[in-house]
Amino acid sequence: MGDVNIFAVIVAAISSFVLGGLWYSKLLFEQAWLRESGAPSQPGHPGKVFGLSFLFCLVSATAFAVYLGPAPELGHAVSAGLMVGLCFVAASFGINYQFAQRSMTLLAIDGGYHTVQFVVYGLVLGLWP
């Protein structure tokens, strides 16, 4: 853990948080996500939702930085982000979504977000080792 650039991890977590705000906004997928997920338009207490979401961003960015190791090569970091996002996170969602009878549209939205999230983590951590 000592070789992890904590500043790069924090920037990666912030980038994920910003990406999520854009991804699930009216500009991109908010309406489709609300329709497909059946979630209320106003989730729980905003402070709790955003605080815990950012904490999870920090956890995932830190774990990914540890996985990549110190000073990862940019191409490797980005391709690892693509693999983790698509093949680990989105595929795992796919399993759950099938049993929960959730739509492929919802899987594409949520899995797409996490795929882009880890690619951006790779960009940040590869550019700022």
From TrEMBL:
Entry's transmembrane regions: 6-29, 49-68, 74-95, 107-128
Keywords: Membrane, Transmembrane, Transmembrane helix
Keyword Transcription regulation attributed: no
Record InterPro entries: DUF1761
Pfam families for this protein: DUF1761
Protein name: DUF1761 domain-containing protein
Taxonomic source organism: Alteromonas salexigens
